[in-house]
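help with this record:
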Amino acid sequence: MKKKPNIVIFMPDSYRGDVLGHQGNPAAVTPNLDAIVERDAVSYSHAFAQNPVCTPSRCSFMTGLYPHVHGHRSMRHMLKEHEPNLLTVLRKEGYHVWWGGRNDLVRVRESQDFDRYCDEKFKPGGKYVEAMEYKKPTPLAADDPCQGAFYHGVLTREGEGAPHWDGDTACVLGAIDMIKNHSDDKPFCCYLPLEKPHPAYYAEEDYYNAIDPDKLPPRIGTSDKNANLLNSLDDLREAFRSDDITEEMWVDVKRVYYAMCTKIDALFGQMVEALKEQGLYDDTWIFFFSDHGDFAGDYSLPEKTHVSLQDCLLRVPLIIKPAVGTPVESGNREHLTELLDITATIYDFLEIDPGYDHQGVSLRDSLGGDETVTHDAVFAEVGCRKDEKQFLNPLPHDFPADHFYSRQSRAASPRHLEGSHAVMCRTTQYKYIRRYYTGHHELFDLENDPGETRNVRGQEGYAEVERQMEQRLLDYFMHTADVIPYEQDSRQIN
């Protein structure tokens, strides 16, 4: 019987798709990711998440279903026990599933509920805590406008108080111990949903010093009123006091964010090295990707938003290193891909029938070097329907009024209650965003305006483009509106 390969799913949170050295960003310090792509892996430069927020995106790629198919559009509606997903499918296929990191994926009411999805849910402590060295910087003053940028600064070894708790390092060290102690009885799936580079923005001084601020790409600025852009972003900028934050500070926000990505690269390198030391690297599939991106100062905004669909929020890294024996031509790929394709690719190469229909596309041919278009367009959605109160996240109500998420919630909640649902169709040349409740649709000419700073909808010369994008969006919803379960019900029982 053919031995099943191991699987590592290395998934940082909020990692933008443009912070990669091997894809031509001179400011990105990612030597370990660059090295694996040069030798053994494929990196997709135009991979897109299906939602710019953690939970909806994870529910989507873990099932292989678009968010609208199962209603996973909010932070507080996670996968339920009856919903099939990659982790439960792999367990049924005989995999030992090890989970180290955050959730934002499945409904758990007590810790034992994780047993439905993994064989081991890692809880770091003891020696993993003792490995921490860096200390917190001096907190910002309460009235410092950089509070609105979610900026916490640089960690040093001479900071305040006890060493800073670094859960990502602990989880990676735990995964390495699992690899070292792994028996050959079962293949393993190591699922590492890490915290960084999710804000708050703070980084250890070693990684911060590695980033040259002069090489950072220029920020995408704010547009004038004639650009006809989404005004809810103005609400956020007002809540965060973005106009009071200096250009120098916005640059430092981006530098710290890049440093956080460099830390992730270093942890990834430790994982790869452990696989090699144990002789498991060749027999392991490695997937490196993120659930969504981050503003990191673009548009004078930090973090992300639940109302908009910019590329910096949706474009993510996607790097795949297959197991030995898989035809692969390493390097960059330019064609459009979606995170749904990860699940489809795993099911395809492992010859798994997951027991349900999924909507991604296997990247088998692409990994082998075929540059044929995989998707003619990619899709995403965000926001909620009018008065859909179950969409709202109650957690920020427990925070102090000046907390970042309290500000964000106060600025965005009125828009949600009015109806913020938006859907996106993006090709290589255009992006079209349709908003049912406001009618404030957007069309961006990405070749001439890659920063999405001018809405050209209704302008001369774009009428046919808009018609085609509307048609493509309609076709998408017709094609993906639902899936029929495999199990059929009897009509004969009285």
Notes: DSSP finds 14 helices and 17 strands in the chain. The radius of gyration is 22 Å. The chain has a mean pLDDT of 94.
